[in-house]
Design goal:
mainly alpha, 6 helices
Length: 161
């Protein structure tokens, strides 16, 4: 019995969802001793890769929310926890007194190193049974799917994307 392309796509989506949940759960467990949640880890990674974050410039809180695809209030909650832990600090935006910028601290950069190590270890453990060539093929296929999705016109209003 052969599987239809629709069934294959649905199974692929289900398998990817399971894989993401397992990787996220294992990452969360490994970050727990450091007091870092996955949401905080994502925010730190976004800040680390933001243009200007290497110096004393920083990202606006609203930009961080946009990059994380979360509501500004949720970004405030994440930044509150990161600031309390000493991993980021808020600074006034010199161009707009009403805006706040967020910058990584030295401790925040050290936390990024731990996060990077944990993510690397978890990924290595999960994908170890797959040959390097199959890993390359999977990555290429997923990148192609993501690029096609991103370049597709938006769906009609009311349709899910």
């Amino acid at each position: 019995m052969t599987t239809s392309p629709v069934d294959t796509a649905a199974e692929l989506a289900d398998t990817l969802t399971r894989a993401m949940k397992r990787i996220r759960r294992r990452t969360m467990t490994r970050l727990e001793p450091f007091g870092i949640t996955p949401a905080q880890a994502r925010a730190l990674r976004v800040l680390a890769h933001a243009p200007g974050c290497e110096g004393r410039e920083a990202m606006r809180l609203s930009e961080l929310a946009d990059h994380l695809h979360i509501a500004p209030r949720s970004a405030t909650t994440v930044v509150d926890a990161l600031e309390e832990a000493g991993l980021v600090e808020r600074t006034p935006d010199p161009a707009d007194r009403r805006a706040v910028r967020v910058v990584l601290t030295t401790d925040g950069r050290a936390a990024l190193e731990r996060i990077h190590q944990v993510r690397h270890e978890v990924a290595q453990e999960y994908f170890a049974p797959i040959s390097p060539s199959d890993q390359d093929a999977l990555l290429k296929a997923l990148r192609s799917a993501e690029a096609a999705y991103e370049s597709a016109p938006p769906p009609p209003r009311g349709a899910a994307r």
